[in-house]
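INFO batch 0412 | record 1 of 1 | parsing
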Amino acid sequence: MGYRYGVPRAKQLEKAKAPYHHGNLRQALLDAALAAIREDGVAELSLRDVARRAGVSHAAPAHHFGDKAGLLTAIATVGFDRFAQAQRDARERGGADPTARFSWTGWAYVMFADQNREYFEIMFRPELLNGDDAGYRAAADAAHQVLLETMRPALGALTEDQLLMQSTTAWALAHGLARLWLDGNLSSFAGLTDIDQAARATFGLPPKS
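INFO prediction complete | emitting tokens
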């Protein structure tokens, strides 16, 4: 009659073919990975632990991301999207002044690192990522474009080579300050305990009121 254990056979086949549901499983896995990174650092991250935290089969992360590099690449892609938006939002604080807009963008770089460490620790680690992933490349390039398009009006007429060098210098300044803060060196060696104030001073912005 096409029935088994009181369930229509057609329904059984339909159920067997249906995808596994966990709400948004991909996002649940990303959230679990971010929690693991916050607690234990990226070096200790494993797909099995991510699956355990998400409450799914240990095969689920590999199904969605392939391997650990794929998972970290997905996290870095989201990180760069958020990073670029944070810089865009911050530069608006400079109003119509190109120099102020550029300074606020530098400030936003450092503050993003402080407030989103689990992303920042991965975004600039090419050895951990699939560098040829199209989504990752697009997100990283978009974030770089925010820097370039903010620098051009602030620094005046520059050749492309000059703009590249100036943008690299600015990047090194912001990234170096962020890295020193995250590694605890600003507090240990310079006695700086307020990264917001330190970033403002570095980029010539007014102190917090």
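INFO post-check: Residues 68-91 form the longest helix (24 residues).
INFO record closed
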